[in-house]
Amino acid sequence: MQERLNIVPFVSVDHMMKLVLATGVERFLIELAAYIEEDFRRWECFDKTPRIASHSAEGVIELMPTSDGEAYGFKYVNGHPKNTRFGRQTVTAFGVLADVGNGYPILLTEMTILTALRTAAMSAVAAKYLAPKGARTMAMIGNGAQSEFQAIAFKAILGVDKLRLYDIDPSATARCQKNLAGMGFEITACSSSQEAVEGAEIVTTVTADKQYATILTDNMVGPGIHINAVGGDCPGKTELHRDILLRSDIFVEYPPQTRIEGEIQQLDPDHPVTELWKVITGQVPGRSGGRQITLFDSVGFAIEDFSALRYVRDRLKETGLYEELDLLADPDEPRDLFGMILRAAKPTPVAATVGAL
To answer: Is 233 known to be catalytic?
Structure first.
């Protein structure tokens, strides 16, 4: 990439799709998961704050910023469950990576596709430490836009190859099953969430209805299960019955954010939870017994997006899958911004004078 100060590499949706395909979905998820795990190991180096949210009756718009002192990243993301009724995505996003030393952005990228990949990679990283060893069967309740990414990440990173799918919309399950055909999965389409969890060692909940709606009831969760609670997180968005939470060892990304938006919003503010970075760094145990119920209350955190932005920028050097945006005003004399505008004016053509003969 050229390092002209006014030029910012931009990764469009088309570029992102080509990057994923050129890399291979499984390899992309494995490498992205490694970046996330690397950043979780240096968790204490990052600025951390709950995402800045603007809630409405229709959904939420959020900004997710963080910095490791050398680079600064943020993601703009929304969550509007009703969008699918009008042919739109529930979640869309874009992100920026910038140089802390001078404040100049060094990457602008779509993050609708990248967020789906990041969320799946994060789920698999958590399950690497929390799921039963050798688990191969996963129930997936909610078969929308995130489902295939979750399935492929769990297969690539943990070896999960048996899927039990359920969605209140059978066409969503059919689409998911079709999209995953030929990828090495044994897939069972189920008629209820109760049926889906039968025999599953891992249960992933990934619905997007913005209301207090219980997807898993206490009687559906037996000992030894790992629950990957994804969903479309916001106040009022819960998928697990409270009694499940009380029986589980709960692991989270950043407690101040999760207590607002995650499953644990149902619990007392001081209910004990374990931060996942402490498990990854070996400071505290993850799964410690065969009958233990582990719950990753996933809400997504800015450091994960930072990892995704880092990964994409590193891949651009070898793929060239970006375009150059003239995004920043960069006058020859930094103090002469107005003069830059004046110099951009086209010179007025001089009319030819014809003398009288």
So the answer is: yes
